[in-house]
Amino acid sequence: MRIARYTEGDDPVYGLVDADGKKIAEVTGDPLYQRIELTGRTTTVDEVRLLAPVIPRSKIIGIGRNYADHAAEMGNEVPAEPMMFLVPNTAVVGPGDPVVIPTELTSKVSFEGELAVIIGRMCKDIEPEEAKKVIFGYTIANDVTARDLQRGDGQWARAKGMDTFCPLGPWIETDLDPQDVSIVTRLDGEVAQDGHSSDMVHGVAALISHASKSFTLLPGDVILTGTPAGVGLVDPGQRVEIDIDAIGTLSNPFVASE
Ligand code: MG
């Protein structure tokens, strides 16, 4: 099932997207928290503005260096345990929304195409074998990173957490094998990243288990599962598109702050 959050000019609503990614059937309520029913109203993806499919009420947990080829390209070792960081929900934007580069703070902004996991049930201290039960679904994330701030600050709060630095979308896919998707990122149409989730150092079940040992996970929490090799800098005026075959495409233009 594909669940989109969108607006036709009024308040955001949710809908089920068909297999072709073209038609939307509106539902009542928020599928993350409520039982949903079809309203009978249908529209098309082209006629609405898609929004980030989830705005986490609690937290986004990022995972660093979870693909060996990406850790190597950055000159880093693969950590023995998943390396976690937090991103504020104010960083989230939707498909098509501009990523605003604050040019007074950074001159080295990079894209990172990633599979994102959305938690559906409150949980704590769960084992990897139980992880599937707490997953609501999956979407695509761009873990936008200011490399100069990442290196200079000594921690990653600003580098990855600034406003608009966490595009999510285009919708949530509830049924896929998270270790069997390709992740392809294009910069202005040129393929930069061509990875596969089977190459994660720590798989999704292990990441959820690890995170739940430190944090209570709540419905709507998002886990960014790390990026494969091929990251690169993006300038204002360029566009980044991330394809995950089983989900769709997340596309965002990058612009300079005023
Ligand atoms: Mg990342």
UniProtKB/TrEMBL annotation:
Domain Rv2993c-like N-terminal: 1-53
Keywords from the UniProt entry: Metal-binding
InterPro entries referenced in this protein's UniProt entry, alphabetically: Fumarylacetoacetase-like_C, Fumarylacetoacetase_C_sf, Rv2993c-like_N
Residue ranges of every copy of the Fumarylacetoacetase-like C-terminal domain listed in the record: 59-254
GO biological process assignments: carboxylic acid metabolic process
Keyword Acyltransferase: no
Recorded GO MF terms: acetylpyruvate hydrolase activity; isomerase activity; metal ion binding
Organism superkingdom: Bacteria
Name of the protein described by the UniProt record: 2-keto-4-pentenoate hydratase/2-oxohepta-3-ene-1,7-dioic acid hydratase (Catechol pathway)
